[in-house]
Amino acid sequence: VSAPARIEDLLRELTPQVLGALVRRYGQFDACEDAVQEALLAAALQWPEQGVPANPRGWLITVASRRLTDQWRGESARRRREATAAALTPTDEAFIPAPGAEQPADQDDTLILLFMCCHPALSPASQIALTLRAVGGLTTPEIARAFLVPEATMAQRISRAKQSIKASGIPFRMPPERERAQRLRVVSHVLYLIFNEGYTATSGPDLHRGELTGEAIRLTRAVHRLLPDDGEVAGLLALMVLTDARRPARTRPDGALIPLAEQDRQRWDQAAIQEGVALITETLAHAPIGPYQIQAAIAAIHDEAARADETDWPQILALYELLERIAPGPMVTLNHAVAVAMVLGPQAGLDLLAPLDADSRLAKNHRLDAVRAHLLEMAGDYAAARASYRTAARRTTSLPEQRYLETRAARLTGTDP
Amino acid sequence: MEAAVKYLLMIHMNPTIFETLSEAERNAVFSAHDAFQKPIRESGELVGFAALADPSNSTTVRVRGGVPAVTDGPYVEAKEFLAGYYAVDCESLERAIELAAQIPDARYTAVEVRPVMHEAGLEL
Predict the structure, then answer these.
(1) Interface of A with B (CB under 8 A)
(2) What is the pLDDT of residues A360-379, one digit of tens each?
(3) d(CA A205, CA A149)
(4) Which listed residue, of A146, A184, A299, A349, carries a Cα 20 to 30 Å from A414's Cα?
(5) pTM of the model
């Protein structure tokens, strides 16, 4: 690992700690967040040249505090010019901690920040953007690039989110015990969305979106470290690691998607698979079961099959039945139908899909047509399969998926008896 | 489960309808665009926008047998044409429809809401 990369890792790790220390001391989440971003920028410029300071965390807190007090001085000078009441001007030296001070609060601070950024008052898009910036330490341009929106758009989204937090008066402390479990589910969902956003990105112009999966895994790892007994956080981490292990094999060099059954499993990341399998095995043995754990267990079964036809479909089917019971939804039914088809034959899977046509949550969703097309192909009804592939291709808004579905349809042309 | 989706809000124009409007009504449409843009710029939903010149300014290019053939005018002559667009990044189709309904032109002609294709995909 090169020195700049090490510095970057260090900065990302310190971001929530430094921000937490500042908000704890000064309040004013929005102003502190700006000050931390400036301190991170200063560090990114100075440290590679001058070396990493002995106490990098203290350095960042000092620099950020100075920015904050400079800003307050500027504001208060303006207020004086406007002949309004004189404002408090803190003397910065008094606020600079002794090296290593407040160390025990760091871990709580990262969690408190996550809970704050994932506050239910914010929209999911804002929760994601704020989490990546305040907890992940990504810059606004990086986040904008990852979500393919202009920098100004993302800057507005983040500044709006910070204003909402300010306006709502959410205090910087752990939510009350009774709210914590529910809030942790929102945090998990935000981390899951960040992972998905990165994972569904393919190649070419979107290559940097892959960083989002790495960032989601890093943040989930941090939450897991802080809450090792939460089975669903462990399940989510295992799900991410086991899914990401397949990344090297899931696209062709030109960006085209390769379905699971056709991937070159030699290229899967065996170290990641081992880590994920160990984590989910350990978790299932001790924690109350939950949807992320079940999905991780399913991912583990796929990952453990050396060849697609060695996949333990009966066990996957049993897990989808369990998932349908504890977390039902149309997408679960779709995947359940695939498992049913693999165990009991395509017609049984198609029967399970039939009621979904009436489900408004899936109306016009290309995945229903895509799964039906696959099952019809398995059943040997090529004309109907081709029609379903074409319908799915028309309905998807994803270019690589459209390309894949059209290829499948074209392959079936001329196969009629 | 899907994150924010980008939509193109396409403003269709029918000159025969627009010509029947009074000057005040027409000016109201133009100024209402500023009012429409401000909140979605602040919320971060506005990705981009453009007003397009009349299709009589179009040039159409076709390459046949490796040779470009350039003709003046649009590809198809139509009573209605694309007059401009807003690219927005919203939480849901419902939100995109809500925004489309706020575009002043929707009162006289129509605004078409269409998702923008993206490079992301699952391996299905």
Answers:
(1) 123-125, 128, 147-150, 153-158, 160, 193, 196-197, 200-202, 204-206, 209, 250, 255, 257-260, 263, 331, 367, 370, 374, 396-402, 404-405
(2) 888 778 899 999 999 999 99
(3) 13
(4) A349
(5) 0.83
